[in-house]
Specification:
alpha/beta, D-Maltodextrin-Binding Protein, domain 2, 2 domains, 6-stranded mixed beta sheet, 5-stranded mixed beta sheet, elongated
């Protein structure tokens, strides 16, 4: 009996020891697996931290803010195609004003915007405390001389009625264009003498030997008034909105020197610090490509001209 009890105690002790050693041998195995899992997780975290932020949400999309004509048209009709060749997806966000494209860019909602001149961007940086930077010039919307009655400037008869914008800046710009293209010898005292008006210029035989009747009208209304005029100097944006380049291409357009080229060019703009990002460099390459130049030349017929210049 005592032997049986003793045997039972020995057997129980052996079983207990076996169970304990089994648990003991399992513990290091579990810890090893947990250590491997932790190492793998750490590696994943490190890789995620080193990867570009954009890659987490699908990285090949570039979002650009633009106004409708011609900026959004250029982006959607040709730049999107050029970017796709290099594996990029373009999303164009169209704005109807000039404020939101800049504030949205400042807040990181856009990768870039495309609608403005350097002067406007610099003013916005100063007035609104923004941190924007131009990275590439793309185009200019020149003022042109349009006509529905004549095919060349040389066909304009003496005494022809020529419309110009009635606001001071664009009115003088229109008269400068007429001088630049030889229709006027000079602008007389226009812009320097308040008493010298468009009517004065019309009657000034020295400045206006052909007796053109210079007629000021609201800039936006000039395309609508063109059938009643022999010709008109019309801003590029109003000419585009009226569809003039396709039906009645400009007889001639502004020419620009270095200073006015920079002043009139519309630039691709980004937030400071992003100038050299992969997305921005891809966008610059696409916007200043030969395909974009060909599209602008063939589509807008002088109402928009390429100006692939560096910011200054």
């Amino acid at each position: 009996m005592k032997k049986n009890v003793l045997a039972s105690l020995v057997l129980a002790g052996s079983l207990a020891f076996g169970v304990l050693t089994g648990c003991g041998s399992q513990a290091p195995a579990d810890q090893g697996a947990q250590t491997q899992d932790a190492d793998a997780q750490a590696a994943d975290n490190k890789a995620a931290e080193s990867a570009p932020a954009a890659s987490a949400d699908g990285d090949k999309k570039i979002t650009v803010g633009a106004t409708p004509v011609p900026h959004a048209e250029i982006l959607d009709n040709i730049v999107k195609e050029v970017l796709a060749e290099d594996g990029w997806e373009l999303e164009t966000v169209v704005f109807s004003d000039y404020v939101l494209p800049n504030t949205s860019l400042e807040e990181g909602e856009l990768d870039a915007n495309y609608f403005q001149t350097l002067g406007y961007m610099n003013q916005q940086n100063s007035d609104a405390g923004l941190h924007l930077k131009a990275v590439a010039g793309v185009h200019i919307e020149p003022m042109g001389i349009y006509s529905q009655k004549y095919k060349s400037l040389s066909e304009l008869p003496d005494g022809a009625t020529i419309g110009i914008p009635n606001d001071p800046d664009n009115g003088e710009r229109g008269i400068d264009l007429l001088v630049q293209k030889g229709l006027l010898v000079s602008k007389g005292s226009f812009g320097t003498d308040d008493n010298y008006t468009e009517d004065s210029l019309s009657k000034d035989k020295e400045a206006n030997p052909h007796g053109y009747v210079i007629t000021p009208l609201e800039a936006a209304s000039l395309p609508l008034s063109l059938p009643d005029l022999d010709a008109a100097t019309i801003n590029g944006n109003y000419a585009l909105e009226a569809g003039l380049p396709a039906e009645f291409p400009a007889l001639d357009i502004e020419e620009f020197d270095d200073e006015t080229t920079v002043k009139r060019t519309n630039f691709l703009v980004v937030k400071e610090g992003n100038e050299n990002s992969e997305k921005v460099q891809a966008l610059i390459k696409a916007l200043t490509s030969d395909k974009v130049k060909e599209y602008i030349d063939s589509t807008y017929k002088g109402a928009v001209i390429t100006s692939f210049i560096d910011p200054q």
